[in-house]
Each structure stands twice: as C-alpha cells, then as structure tokens.
Specification:
The structure holds 3 protein chains of 3 kinds. Chain B is mostly helical. Chain B is about 75% helix and about 0% strand. Chain C is an alpha/beta fold. Chain C starts with 5 loop residues before the first strand and ends in a 5-residue tail after the last helix. Chain C has a 6-stranded mixed β-sheet with strand order 6-7-8-3-9-10, with helices on both faces. Chain C has a 4-stranded antiparallel β-sheet with strand order 2-1-4-5, with helices on one face. Classes of the chains: A mainly alpha, B mainly alpha, C alpha/beta.
Chain lengths: ~290, ~325, ~250
Amino acid sequence: MLESLQYIYAPQMVNGLSIGVAVVLMALGLTIIFGLLDVINMSHGEFYAAGAFISVSLMAIGVSFWLCLILVPLILVPIGFGMERLLIQKVFHYKDRHILTLLLTFGVAMILEDGYKIIWGANPIKPSAPISGASELLGVMFPNYRLFLMGFGVLIIFSVWALIYKTQLGAIVRASAYDKDMSSSLGIPVMRVYALTFAFGVALAGLAGVLLAPIYSVFPTMGRDFILMAFSVVIVGGLGSIKGAVIAGILLTQLQSISSLFISPVWSDPLVFTVMVLVLMFKPTGLYGGMKNA
Amino acid sequence: MHNPQVRAIRIIEILLLASAIVLFLVGSILGDTFFLRLATESLIFGGLAMSVDLLLGIVGLLSLGQALYFGFGAYLSALILKEVSPSFFLAIGIVTLSSIVLGWAASFVALRSKGVYFALITFGLAQVAAKVVYNTRSLGASDGMMGVPILQIWTPIGSVDAGQPGIFFVITLLTISALYGVLKYFLTTPMGSIWHAIRSNEDRLAYIGYKSKGPKQVAFILAAVVAAVSGALYPMLRGFVSPELMFFSVSGNAVVTVVLGGVGTLIGPILGSVLLTSFKSIIGTWTVHHHIVIGLIFVAVVISAPKGIAGLLATYFRKTHSRKGEE
Amino acid sequence: MENMEIILKAKSLSKHFGGLAAVDDVSFEVTRLGVTSIIGPNGAGKSTLFNLLSGTFMADSGLVELECKNITRMSPEERLSCGMARSFQITNLFFDLSVINNLRIASQALEPSSHLFLPLSKSAIAIDRANELLEEFELLECCDQLAGALSHGQQRRLEIAVTLATRPKLLLLDEPTQGMSQADTQDTAELIKYLGSKITVLLIEHDVDLVMDLSKTVIVMAQGKKLAEGIPGEVRANPLVQTAYFGEELA
C-alpha cells in the first residue's frame, strides 16, 4: 500500500502539482480580469499560447529560457494594455457589455489563433526543458524541471497575492474595481488602471505559456484547448477570488492526474467539466465566492 | 408608422427570397452545381445561426455550444438514412423528436445558470460531446461516417431526386423557411413577449407572475430542435458527417453570423450565414487563413455596429423617416 | 370605506444577514383597504421587511399570512397569484420594451397558461387590461415608446400601473415618491389615496408628512424592530418614535 503511494500516486501528484501551478497562474489572470474588470476574457487562452510561441522564437534566436521568463510577460503587457484600452473599453458603456466583451474577446481569440498558424505553422513545436535530469525525493525520481516549476510557480502566486493585497498599487486596483466613480474622484486614473490590470492578467497567462511549453509543446490550438480548464478553475474557485483560483487549480489538476491512472485521458476533460457543472449547480459562486458581486 | 426594425427585417426577407429564386432559376438553367450547393450549405448553417439567435437575441442567453445539437442532428440523420431507411421525412421526424428530448435533458444542466456561466456550460457541454464522439469507434471516431445515400424525396407532385443540387436547394430552403416560420410564430405569442421580457429584465418577471425557468426551457428546447433539424440536412447534402461538426469553431462561427446579420432578428443570422459562407469560399481561393479576416470583421462589427446589418438598415430607416417627418 | 378585516398578518418575522438582525421579531397586522405605511429611519429594516413580505428574501423565522393563507415560503409569482403585488423603489421596468408591451406582459397572468402559445390576439383579457391601464395612468400618448425613454414621472406611473395589472388585493409600494419633485409627489399622493379606496395599500416611505396625511395605520421600525403601530396621531405623539427619528429633537 505504501509502495503504491510512493511509486504510483506520489509521482502523479507531483506531476499534477507542477502543472497545477501553471494552471493556477493562468486562472489567476483570468479571475483577476473578471473579478476586477467584470470582463470575460475569451482570448485568455490565446495569450497563454502567445507566451509559449514568443518564448519559442526568442529561444530560437539565442535568448535564454530564464530571460524569456522576464521578457515574455513584459512584451505581453503593452499588447494587453492596448487591447483593453482600444477595444474593450469601446464597448464597455453598453448595457449588454458582458455579452459584448465576451464576443469581442472571442473575436480577438479567433484572430490570434489563426495568426499563430500563419506565423508559426500548424505543427507542434517542442522546446527542450531548460533544466534536465531528475532528482530523488523520498525514494522517487522527479524531473528537475517539474520541481523548478512548482517552486517558481509558488513564488509567483505568492507575489501576485502580495501585490494585490499588500501594496499601495494593489489597493488602487481594488478600489477602482469596487467603486469606479469614487476612485476617479479621488484622482485615480481608473481607465488606465483597468487597462493595466488586464495587461497584468494576460501577462500571467503568457508566463504560464512559457513555463508549460517544454511539457505540453506549442501549437496554434493550444490556447483553445486549455481555456476550458482555466475557466473551470476560475468558476470552481469563485470568480474574482485569488485563494479560490489557487485551491481550485490545485484540486482540479490533481483530479486530472490521479484520475488518469484509472481512466483514459480522453475522459479527464469531461471529468473536470462535470465537476465545474456540479459546482455551478450547487454553489454558483464557487468555493470562495467573489471579491465583487460575482 | 412602420417600426424601422420591422422594415429592415422585411427588406432582408425579400432580398434573400428573391436571390434564392434567381439562384435556383439561373443555376438550374446553367446546370450549376457549385453555387447551388454553396447556397444550400449556407442555409443549413443559417439554421444553426437562427438557433443561436433565438437564445441570444430573443431570450438573452449566449450559447457557445449549439454545435452540439447541430452535430447530433447530423449524426442521427446519417445513421437513420444509412441503417434504417433513406427517407427524408423519417430522418427529419426522428431528429425532431429526439432533439426535443436531448434539449430537455440538457436544459437541466445548462439552465441552472445564466449570463457568463451559461455560456461556459454550453461551451463545455459541446466540447465534451465532441470529444466523446471523436473517440467513439462505432460512430467512425475521427473519420466520421460516410456513404450516406442520396435521397429520393416524396412530394405531392412526385418523387424528386435530392442528388440534383437545384432540387435539394429548394428542399433546404423550404425546411429552413419552415423553421423560421415556427420561430416567427412563437414571437407572435405571449411566450415570445415573455422571452423578450426575460432579456430585458429577468428579475422583474417573477413579480408579474411568471417564473423565468419554464419559458427559458421552452426556448432552449426549441433552439435545440432548430439546430438539430438544420444539422440533419447536412449529411443529405454532403454525404458524410464528422466530429468537426460539433467543434467549437462551428458554434463560434454561428455566433459571428448572428452578430454580423443582426442579433434578435432571426433573418439576420441567415443573411450573415449566406454572406459569411460566400465570403469564406471567395477568400478561400486566395488563402487558407480566412479565420483571421473573419475575426477582424467580427471585431469591427462588435465595436462599431453591434446590431449588425439589420441594425444598420434599421438605423437608416429611422433616420430617413425622421428626416421625412421634418420636411 | 374602511374595514377591520385583516388581510395581511406578519408574526415574529426575523431575518439575519451574517450576525446582523436586519428584521428582528416583527409582528403586525394590515386591515383591508386604505393605506398602511411603514416608516423608520435609515437602516431600520423597512426594505428587508418588505422583501420578506414580497418573497424576495425568505424569512429565517416567523410567519406571513395573506387572507389566512400561509405564504411565508412562497415565491414572488406564487404570492402574485394569491393577490399580492409589489412595486420597486428603483424603477424596475422592461426598459427595452414599449409601454404597451410592458403593460400587456404584466397583464398576461390574467390569462390561462395555454394562451401563452396562442397568437397574441387570443389574449384579449390582457390586451384590454393593458389599454385600461394606459388610460387610467395617462400613458396613452407614450404607449409605443420604449419604457427606457420615458420621463422619470412617466416611468414611476408605469411602474405602479405594471404592479396593478393583475388586479391584486394587496399592493406593496416601495418608496414610490423616491426622487420626485414636490408636484409629482403630490400627484402620487393623490394616486395612492385613490388606490387605497379600492384595494389595500402597504407603503414604505421616507416622507413622514406624506405618510401621516395618507395613512390609516402607521408602523414605525427602528433597528430591525417594530417600534410602534397605530393611527398617525398616536404614532406621531409617541416619544419613542420621536427619539428614534429625531434624536433629541421633538417632532
């Protein structure tokens, strides 16, 4: 019994954790964008893909993986800022704005996905892991890259949480989300804050893309494939809740990895989806409700 | 005074009907296959778009997974035509009845939520179904099913050969028009008004005496039927079905055509489908990357003309009417 | 013509939000016809009480009886079929629909449910009622306009008309003069008085003078509890009420 725990479950769980951490990064961006901006970003998966593709190209011209971890999110920030400022804010004043922003971001996703196909081709690209080899932990061998992923991911998640809840900047963002008019009259450039928040959210998704590229490989439809998982995490965790995104992200990826021991991986998506639907049916606000009125 | 939106709808209806008649006559005389089949396909997907519009434009629910019912109708139709009997009416009839059941069952999952969550649940349902079909060997897995026979369809004036592009174009036109007629009828009933009320202010509905769940369920099931019956026509035209029919791009394209044509008008989506299908086929001769162009057009429409072509027409009518009033 | 027959009874109603008792063991009776008003300073729990009575919230404990029928657990549409209708403080119309359609949909509940699937013309009762309301509330000239395009005063009239569509026995009015000018308030007061002569009206209001003028019974709430219940003169003179409302000042 202990042996199966050690040799079968533990590796699966650790693998699941390393993926879970990246999923959480992506879900974090999504939940922040919805919780603070009230925008459903259907193009979030495409920013995840963007991060992966850009890192692949940068590494092809000799930029190190480590530099990519910093550069890629930085590159995505102005893109996200521009998208929010130039597109999303244009439809924000309509009464139907939830649906319109959904449709708008969905349209952008369509453009981006085809764009990736044009620029990089339809074939999957698999960058090699920047850290090779494996280490032994409690008698089991784990790939070093996965261990790094976990550690780095936890660091980023913690930083995001600290940024939002413990800094002045975070307070400004939360105030703008909570009461736009009040914040504006206090001198906060609300529109710019919104655009920055969106940019930050998609940059996180891009970072997740860089991190997961060596594991999942990179191809044009990777964003669309991943977005159901990202939304499931956000919904189960509670739209707008960082704690929820973290816990749901870990839970759902664990569910995925452990269940793949028993059932064909084809059914893991349906399984995650079923959990999401059940949560929606019985606790619509997710595990941890929302920061706003979600 | 004629409501500008009603006028816009009327113009589009006449335009489409006239083009259809012209296309049929000219195409039949010239022995054309390509354009007639393209038009037939655009009508079939127009039916799917109508089902999206019923939910989005009338009731206010964005479904990102209508392809589920479309694919269901297509597969079921193919199975019946291949394994049971190559009968048009049998296939349509069975698809209609089973899609009522399917829609009813799915409504219990989907209608638990609204807004964003509804969109995501419908998206997820279609993703899951597509994956299941993709991996089911008895349904042909990723290759789908081929070899759907060409139908001989009974009509009051004798049996017609559905293999003739012109003939099947008319059959499809009649079927889709019938679906359109059914939906328009519902809009003339109090149920239709309640749907509009739900879209406008769902919370108030209970206070004037109606739970929103029942009417939503009716619309949901109706949308499932419309999508499924449209889908049932697909294998009759193309001779095969494949899991791609349930993929998100099908649902997504339907949403694009609805917004393009004019959300809430029912005929707008048909126009949008005709335009988009023609457009794809034209652009397709230059490049395989029509998605980007369509995506760009879509984004432009959402930002500058969210009510689509029908909306632009209606605005035009409103302006000319008020200008006339000032003269 | 007033009546001593009880139409609505509330017994020990309570509603908590978190640790806060928004409504705390409130009991009162409303007699048929005339205007009964609920007043109280901000945060007194009037809105919550209203929401308990109309089915917007479910009470944590206690009882609501409409004509001796226990409606405590009923949903808003079930309460409507028992004869209770409510209006909303923030105008809650179908803004994208025309005035006539707002009224017609509001009147649809007068028809049997089978009529939902028949053409509109078969719902003659609802159509007639809508036209009746158009005239009664002076909305004829804007009958085809979208509800969202009306003036504030017109919208408030429409709001009340919609609430009255199904000819309820008990009308719950939620701060009907909210944001109104003096003139509009006067008109609305006349309207409420007139309504009170035909059906029972239960009113939440902030405007104390208006309430004292109109009502046969006034209920005062403060901090979730019922403070006083009686005819306007009695209530006005009640020292507890004066303290709750005006602090140290005398009315």
